[in-house]
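hey m, so remember when u said the tokens were messed up on ur end? i reran from scratch. heres the input so u can diff it against urs
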Amino acid sequence: MRAIALIAALLFALVSSAAADDVGAAQDVIRAQEQAFGRDDAASAYSYAAPAIRQIFPQPDIFMSMVQNQYAPVYRHRSFEFGAVQSDGDRIAQRVHIVDANGEAWEALYTLERQADGSLKITGCSLLKAGQAV
């Protein structure tokens, strides 16, 4: 009986460690894109977008223009802090608390998905003023 409990504990630790690694990798991707926006590096920021996003915005400069116009708090901000996260297999949903350049609070929900090559790419970002209902 103890052997089964020990094996179960080890398997749980391995799964938890893998999930934590995925969350860390997802946060690294989001942070890298956020830093690319800060440098106005359209090509680098675009490289973290999933293929479906790249189909909608077929060039880095088009993608960057969309972010500047529709996601200003993501593009330029005072603070950018990770919040709650959910992981489900190859998909991760990461909340980010943002304070924009004008001092207003926002909530972003990033979604990421593991690609065939093993990398994580950003599949979307929903942005709401903090306290707004969905």
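this time it looks ok to me. Residues 2-38 form the longest helix (37 residues). if urs says something different then somethings off w ur setup not the seq
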